[in-house]
Structure formats: structure tokens, C-alpha cells
Amino acid sequence: MKNPNSLILLTKISKNYHRGNETVHALQEVDLSIERGDFIAFMGASGSGKSTLLNVIGGLDQCSSGSYLLNGVEVSKVPEKKWIYLRRQWFGYVFQSFHLIPTLTVKENIELPLLFAGKQKLQDKIHNTLVEIGLDHRMNHLPSQLSGGEMQRTAIARAVVHNPPILIADEPTGNLDSENATMIFRLFQTLNQKHNITILCATHDPALAKQCSRIVLMKDGTMWEE
Ligand SMILES: Nc1ncnc2c1ncn2[C@@H]1O[C@H](COP(=O)(O)OP(=O)(O)O)[C@@H](O)[C@H]1O
Ligand SMILES: [Mg+2]
């Protein structure tokens, strides 16, 4: 049942890419509603459309057709200039390859979104985030001095330091061993349960996906729910 009050409501969203003469149908008229507090795993083979979907939802890419309501507001045709603000207001992003700035310390990496948002460096907030993520003892280290798990935890701290309602994570454990992957998911559960952050996570790991509140399966740009 469609609920117009959903946090996110996608209706017949398609995304086509053009490669030479070929058209790739990366998303084919997908419908999806996401409620506040959901923790959703998106699973499916490589090329099934997980990243495309997360990029469309997170405003990193625009759909070709369909309707996208974010908190009741149609955003599918919002120009890039406005998306800059929507991204800051609504989303944090975590990627497989961390994307930390190598010349900045852990603490400086985490401060970055606050600077971009024109907010003061909220020292308490940054410190609390570091403690919550378990990296307060590493705050003056450079990324090169961290383990993979610590790098990803830094990236997660950076993604949530400005209190976004939605965290988008595209295969966040893809470069981690199972122990660190488990730790990242434990952190997601804390963020989800304690701070009510809605989490949208692409993953290949069924054991991790089972810990989410919903599992959406994808194949060839279509989706269904378990
Ligand atoms: N920028 C792009 N240009 C052309 N084709 C793309 C682009 N990004 C993704 N695709 C294609 O879209 C389909 C879905 O890709 P993607 O969303 O990355 O899948 P997944 O994240 O599940 O591996 C694939 O066929 C992929 O090759
Ligand atoms: Mg992908």
C-alpha cells in the first residue's frame, strides 16, 4: 500500500544509461516505499542495479523517469543546484573504498562535512561521534595509519556527524574481513536503533543482510522484497 507520508516513495522509477548505441536499463519501473527507521539491505548480483538505485535515492544521479517523493516532496526533477542542499540536509554516504582524504587526520576528515555545511566545528559533537564510533584514541592518526575497519568507521563518523536522517551505504563491508564487517554492522544497528537513522545498505553478505529489518532483492534493474 502506498503511503504518501513515507520518508521515501519511488513510483515506476527507471534509469537508462547509454553506452554507444546500446541502452542499459539499470532500473526498470521500480516501486519502493521506505519508512523512517527502516534498515534495508539491497542484495543482488553485480550489475543488478543496487548502486544505481542508491545513487538515485541519494541524489548522486538522476532517474530517467518516474516519481521520487522525499518526505512528500517530488525531487525527481530537482536541478543539481538544489540537490546540493538536499544532500546535505538528508543524507550521509558511505562507500566500499572509504574515500577518506589521506592528508587529513581522522578528526579532520570527520570535521569536513560541518565545514562544508557552514556549521561551526562543534567540538563536542565531533568528540561524541568519535567516542561512539570507537575511534577517539585514533583521532590524530592519518588514514594510512589505520586498519580497513578503522578507515570505514572514520568514513561512517564523517557521514553521520551532521545528523542526516538517512545513511546510504554502498557495499560498505566489501573491502573488509568478516570481523570488521560484523563491527560495521553493529555500528549501523546502534545508529539505527539509538539515533533512528534510516539505513539503506547494498551488500553481498546474506549473514549481514539478515540483521537488517528489510531485505530487498534486485535483478536486472527490478526488485522484490523477501
Ligand atoms: N555510468 C554508467 N554508464 C553506463 N552503464 C552503467 C553506468 N553505471 C552503471 N551502469 C550499468 O547499469 C547496470 C547496473 O549497475 P549498478 O547499479 O552499478 O549495479 P550493482 O551496483 O548492483 O553492481 C549495469 O549493467 C552497469 O553496467
Ligand atoms: Mg554497485
Characterise this structure:
By secondary structure, this protein is α/β, with parallel strands linked by helices. It has one domain: 3-Layer(aba) Sandwich (Rossmann fold). It has seven helices and ten strands. It has a six-stranded mixed beta sheet, sandwiched between helices. It starts with 7 loop residues before the first strand and ends with a strand. Adenosine-5'-diphosphate binds next to strand 1, strand 2 and helix 1.
Give the helices and strands as they follow along the chain: EEEHEEHEHHHEHEHEE
Strand order of the largest sheet: 6-7-8-3-9-10
Distinct ligands, ions and cofactors found in the model: adenosine-5'-diphosphate, magnesium ion
**Sheet with the most strands?**
6 strands, mixed
Count of DSSP E strands? 10
Question: Uncertain runs with pLDDT below 50, 5 residues or more?
Answer: none
Helix tally? 7
pLDDT averaged over residues: 94
Topology:
Elements: E1 8-19, E2 22-34, E3 39-43, H1 50-57, E4 65-70, E5 73-74, H2 80-90, E6 91-95, H3 106-116, H4 123-133, H5 148-160, E7 166-170, H6 178-195, E8 198-202, H7 206-209, E9 214-219, E10 222-225
Parallel strand pairs: 3-8, 3-9, 6-7, 7-8
Antiparallel strand pairs: 1-2, 1-4, 4-5, 9-10
Helix pairs in contact: 3-5, 5-6
Bound molecules: adenosine-5'-diphosphate (ADP) and magnesium ion (MG).
